[in-house]
Specification:
The complex is a heterodimer of chains A (about 290) and B (about 120). Chain A has 12 helices and 14 strands. Chain A is an alpha/beta fold and about 290 residues long. Chain A folds into 2 domains: about 1-205, P-loop containing nucleotide triphosphate hydrolases (Rossmann fold, 3-Layer(aba) Sandwich); about 220-290, no CATH class. In chain A, strand 12 (about 240-250) and strand 13 (about 250-255) form a beta hairpin. In chain A, helix 4 packs parallel to helix 6. Chain B is mainly alpha-helical. Chain B has 2 domains: about 10-75, Winged helix-like DNA-binding domain superfamily/Winged helix DNA-binding domain (Arc Repressor Mutant, subunit A, Orthogonal Bundle); about 80-115. Chain B has a two-stranded antiparallel sheet. In chain B, helix 1 (about 10-25) packs across helix 3 (about 45-60) and helix 2 (about 35-45) packs across helix 3 (about 45-60). Classes of the chains: A alpha/beta (about 290), B mainly alpha (about 120).
Chain lengths: ~290, ~120
């Protein structure tokens, strides 16, 4: 199964939130969706799962449009971030009831797994959603997503508000479920340091556009942080893809993305360091403000 | 096993950890190596990454596959790792050391003297 989105554009009253996004999600991978606040992550997840109508383009599952397509929607689960203040109807709903409705919407729902996860997270099922902390609300969305057993499962900010131990627990559960089933997961997150090693591919949105979609390993492999005297840095990196240059006195630091066969020119006294996903993201998406 | 860092590709670190375990005698020749799934769980990493690390060791003849059972430490793996690391020592660390010495203005004679005076 493949979920394909082509030239997807979404506008809210004339304002484009997503512009000409094309990507293919394959089965059996964990994708990370990253981007700054307002980059269009939630809108993209909503559009891919036919939660909102799209303005232009197409979203298809194995060739069939997903919009108002019951067969296709059975294969997709979007576990959205629970935002209680804006969705007032939810605040008086009990955790148990929320998960009950989730089970009704998900034809492959695994109640045994749901119960196990509720136990692991020690979720108070009788409490109303409005009484839960942000972290506990995230746990509810995680239970709904994992227990849905949908072949394509989308999690919007699943670790928001979770403490570091619960975040680790989430990624372990995600990997466990992934290894057992080979389901596809798309996870949006801002906490990149912990997610980087779990994500096989990353989808980076910037200002409503797809900046890049690439496997995490090669993205990190191609990135270098180069520091030294400004003229040495410039000479050694001339002709390469250079981002986020910062000059301090005589020194300069840049992020370089090497394409296949490229290298930083030798013979200069430079410090060349590998980069983490978080640093790469800042180099790619932090530039908007500096321009 | 050790912990992962950001300083290097994760699959390379996984490979190096298994190598270090073999050098230390934590893993013996002809013993079963950790599986992709075990490594993915232990380090909370994508199984594809763990698999890449293991495959690297298979390509180098440090591990071998037994169909349907898993991966095992090859006979002679220890020797192979030692040879590989010795080569890497001269190619990598020693070069870095010489470059830093050059920057600091330490002469070759001074370095030789230090090496001769050390307990090595």
């Amino acid at each position: 199964m493949k979920l394909i989105c082509e030239h997807l554009t979404k506008a809210y009253s004339g304002r484009e939130v997503l512009r000409d996004v094309s990507l293919t999600l394959e089965q059996g991978k964990i994708y990370g969706l990253i981007g700054r606040n307002g980059a269009g992550k939630t809108t993209l997840l909503s559009a891919l799962t036919a939660q909102i109508p799209i303005t232009a383009g197409a979203v298809t599952l194995d060739g069939a449009p997903v919009w108002e397509n019951r067969g296709a929607l059975k294969e997709l689960c979007f576990s959205r971030e629970l935002n209680i203040s804006s969705e007032s109807g939810l605040s008086s709903m009990k955790v148990r009831d929320y998960l009950h409705y989730a089970a009704i919407y998900c034809p492959r729902w695994d109640e045994v797994l749901a119960q196990r996860l509720i136990g692991e997270f020690q979720l108070p099922v009788k409490k109303r959603l409005g009484k839960l902390s942000k972290g506990m609300l995230s746990m509810v969305t995680i239970v709904a997503a994992l227990a849905s057993k949908a072949p394509f499962t989308f999690l919007d900010e699943p670790v928001a508000g979770l403490d570091v131990i619960a975040r680790e627990q989430f990624y372990k559960l995600l990997l466990e479920e992934y290894q057992a089933t080979g389901r596809t997961f798309v996870v949006s997150t801002h906490i990149l340091s912990e997610a980087a090693n779990v994500l096989e591919e990353v989808i980076i949105l910037r200002g409503g556009e797809l900046l890049t979609m690439t496997d995490t390993e090669s993205l990190l492999n191609s990135a270098r942080y180069v520091t030294g005297r400004a003229e040495d840095v410039d000479a050694a990196t001339a002709g390469l893809e250079v981002h986020h240059g910062e000059v301090m006195g005589r020194s300069k630091e840049v992020t370089v993305f090497l394409r296949e066969g490229q290298a930083i020119r030798e013979g200069y006294d430079l410090t060349v360091q590998p980069m983490s996903l978080q640093q790469v993201f800042v180099a790619l998406c932090g530039e908007e403000e500096n321009r | 096993m050790q912990q992962l860092s950001d300083s290097k590709s994760i699959y390379l670190q996984i490979g190096e950890m298994i190598e270090t375990d073999i050098l230390r005698g934590v893993l013996l020749e002809e013993e079963q190596a950790p599986s992709t799934n075990e490594l993915a769980r232990r380090f909370t990493i994508n199984p594809a990454t763990a698999g890449k690390g293991l495959n690297l060791l298979i390509e180098q003849g440090i591990l071998y596959k037994r169909r349907g059972i898993g991966m095992f430490v090859s006979p002679g793996a220890r020797e192979k790792i030692l040879n590989k690391r010795r080569a890497a020592f001269f190619e990598g660390r020693l070069r870095e050391l010489l470059a830093e010495a050059g920057r600091l203005g330490i002469t070759k004679d001074e370095m030789i003297k230090m090496i001769e005076e050390s307990d090595l």
